Amino acid sequence: MTCTRLTISRASWAVLALVAGCANPERSRDVANPAVSGAVLAQQVCSMCHGLGGTAVSPNFPNLAAQTDVYLVSQLKNFRARQRRDPAGFEYMWGLSHALTDAQIDGLAAYFSRSTPQRQRVEGKAERIAAGQHIFEQGLPAKNIPACAGCHGDKGQGNGMFPRLAGQHGDYLVKQLTVFQRTDERSDAQTIPTGAVMKTVAHQLGREDIANVAAYAQAMPNR
Ligand code: HEC
Ligand code: HEC
Predict the structure, then answer these.
(1) 110/112 Cα distance (integer angstroms)
(2) From ligand 2's centre to the CA of 198, what distance in Å?
(3) Rg of the chain in Å (alpha carbons)
(4) Whole-angstrom distance, CA of residue 187 vs CA of residue 179
(5) How confident is the model at residue 23 (pLDDT cuts 50, 70, 90)?
(6) CB 109 within 8 A of CB 73
């Protein structure tokens, strides 16, 4: 079924049925229609990139399954307010989020935070993952880097404003750590300056440290 309005004069009931079908909030993919619930958008729009249930096939798209509710709400509001402005963030997420209502954002966050994540493949070499585990659990005191577990949880499960990292795509984690480290694209404009916290943490991480800790986080079990 197509949503283009028909100009031809077929039986008017058929035209009406088509238009009604497009406006049906249970089936709509319209991110600018406040009547469409977060759960419907999650399945019909977000799933194209983030996967049905929030586990994305491509590492370009972060997994959202079992991400914390508070963090999901905060990031969607940051995208909507154009405060998270790393290139992939504005290219993909600004347009999608700009007309979302607070109620839709709450619904989207509820849907994804309650989804069960799929286990990721373990991709890094064992030594890399072990080095990453060390950083995650102990930090690197010589470089003033705190243990990631202190905020993100000992299983990487996240807590409130601290996002879940366990089972996240390693490529995505590397990209975001580089964003925090080298730019203000996720830190200086936020209403609640949570990005600034990570900027400080990421500051001293070397390239190898980033690759190691990202490989470990991807390999972490889901629960
Ligand atoms: C066309 C692909 C695409 C669609 C559709 C899409 N996203 Fe995204 N989304 C992305 C990309 C790419 C990123 C990573 C942005 C970055 O690197 O900053 C992202 C990031 C996010 C993040 C941040 C995740 C994190 O760990 O910080 C959230 C939350 C999010 N999207 C929610 C949604 C929701 C909710 C929808 C549906 C309304 C949606 N996205 C639809 C591509 C998409
Ligand atoms: C003092 C608390 C704290 C510590 C310690 C910490 N983080 Fe974070 N981290 C945060 C907060 C807060 C955010 C959310 C930032 C935002 O809202 O933009 C975050 C976000 C992230 C993100 C972005 C996730 C996403 O889905 O986009 C990554 C990656 C990350 N942290 C990795 C790490 C790593 C690796 C370490 C250890 C070297 C670490 N963090 C240590 C507080 C912390």
Answers:
(1) 6
(2) 5
(3) 20
(4) 9
(5) low
(6) yes
For ligand 2, the distance from its centroid to the CA atom of residue 111, given in whole angstroms, is 22
Select from 47, 49, 183 the residue to mutate for testing ligand 1; criterion: most ligand atoms less than 8 Å from CB: 49
Task: Give residue 119's identity as a one-letter amino acid code.
Answer: R
CA distances from 117 to 54, 60, 63, 70, 92 (A): 7, 17, 8, 17, 22
| Nearest ligand, measured from the Cα of 87 | 1
Please give the Cα distance from 117 to 26 (Å, whole number).
25
* Angle 186-192-195 from CA coordinates, rounded to 5°: 25
Ligand 2 centre distance from Cα of residue 204 (Å): 14
CA 17-21-24 angle, 5° bins? 135
Residue 140, exposed/middle/buried by CB under 10 A (0-12, 13-18, 19+)? middle
- Chain-centroid distance of CA 178 in Å reads 16
What's the one-letter identity of residue 128? R
pLDDT score of 19 more than 70: no
73-129 tens-digit pLDDT: 999 999 999 999 999 999 999 999 999 999 999 999 999 999 999 887 888 899 999
- Looking up tokens 């659990």 gives 137
Mean pLDDT of the chain: 90
Triad 172, 99, 50: Cα angle to 5° = 30
What residue has token string 């990292």?
A: 165
Residue 120's pLDDT is what?
78
